[in-house]
Design goal:
- Helices cover 35% and strands 23% of the residues.
- With 184 residues, it is an alpha+beta fold.
- The protein folds into 3 domains: 30 residues, no CATH class; 53 residues, Ribosomal protein L9, N-terminal domain (Ribosomal Protein L9, domain 1); 89 residues, Ribosomal Protein L9, domain 2, CATH 3.10.430.
- It has a 3-stranded antiparallel beta sheet with strand order 2-1-3.
- The N and C termini lie far apart (107 Å).
C-alpha cells in the first residue's frame, strides 16, 4: 500500500509542475478567493462594475448583506451592464436638458397692479409648468431654488440644482434659468 502511494506521488511529481500537491492540501480553504462584481465603488477594492477577487468570508459577511457586490455569474453581469447603459442614457438626457435650460429665456406675461408689482406673485410651481410648456423640459420643483415668489417685473436668474454628474457650463459656478416677466 505504501509503495503504491509512493509510486502515485512520483508520477504526479514527474508529470505535473514539479511541486507535490500533498504538501499544499491543507491550504485550499485559507487561500481561496471569490470573483465578485462590485455594485458600488469601494475604497482600496475597486470601482463599481469591476470584477475583483475577495475572500469568501468578506463577501458573505460584509459585501453581500450590504449589496455592495454580487457573485460573478452571467446573469448578474448582464443586469449590471444593462443598469450602466440606462444610467448613461439618463445622463445624456440630463445633459441635453441642462444645455437647453442654460441657453433659454423663459418669458412670462402677467397683469400688474401698481407700478412694477404683479397682481399675483409667480411661484415655483408656475415656473416649472411654464418650463414644461415653453421649453418641453420636465424639471422637478425641488431642482429650482426660489426663496420667495417673484412679485415684480424684470429679468431674473434662478439657480438650478442638477445632478453632480452633469458638468457645469464654462465660466459659471452653477446652472441658472433666465426668467423675464413682462406685463400684458
Amino acid at each position: 500500500m505504501a509503495s503504491a502511494r509512493a509510486a502515485l506521488l512520483r508520477c504526479r511529481c514527474l508529470a505535473g509542475s514539479g511541486a507535490n500537491p500533498a504538501l499544499f492540501s491543507g491550504h485550499g480553504l485559507r487561500y481561496r478567493k471569490l470573483d465578485v462584481i462590485l455594485t458600488t465603488t469601494i475604497d482600496k477594492l475597486g470601482k463599481a462594475g469591476e470584477v475583483v477577487r475577495v475572500a469568501p468570508g468578506h463577501f458573505s459577511n460584509h459585501l453581500m448583506p450590504k449589496m455592495l457586490a454580487v457573485p460573478n455569474f452571467d446573469k448578474f453581469a448582464i443586469l449590471i451592464h444593462e443598469q450602466r447603459k440606462q444610467q448613461e442614457e439618463k445622463l445624456k438626457e440630463y445633459q441635453m436638458a441642462a444645455k437647453c435650460l442654460d441657453n433659454a429665456l423663459l418669458v412670462l406675461r402677467r397683469f400688474i397692479s401698481v407700478g412694477n408689482e404683479l397682481r399675483t406673485p409667480i411661484t415655483k410651481d408656475e415656473i416649472v409648468s411654464e418650463v414644461a410648456r415653453q421649453l418641453n423640459i420636465n424639471i422637478h420643483p425641488e431642482n429650482l431654488q426660489l426663496q420667495s415668489p417673484l412679485a415684480s417685473l424684470g429679468e431674473f436668474e434662478l439657480p438650478l440644482r442638477l445632478p453632480r454628474d452633469i458638468p457645469r457650463p464654462e465660466g459659471k459656478l452653477q446652472w441658472t434659468l433666465k426668467v423675464k416677466i413682462r406685463r400684458i
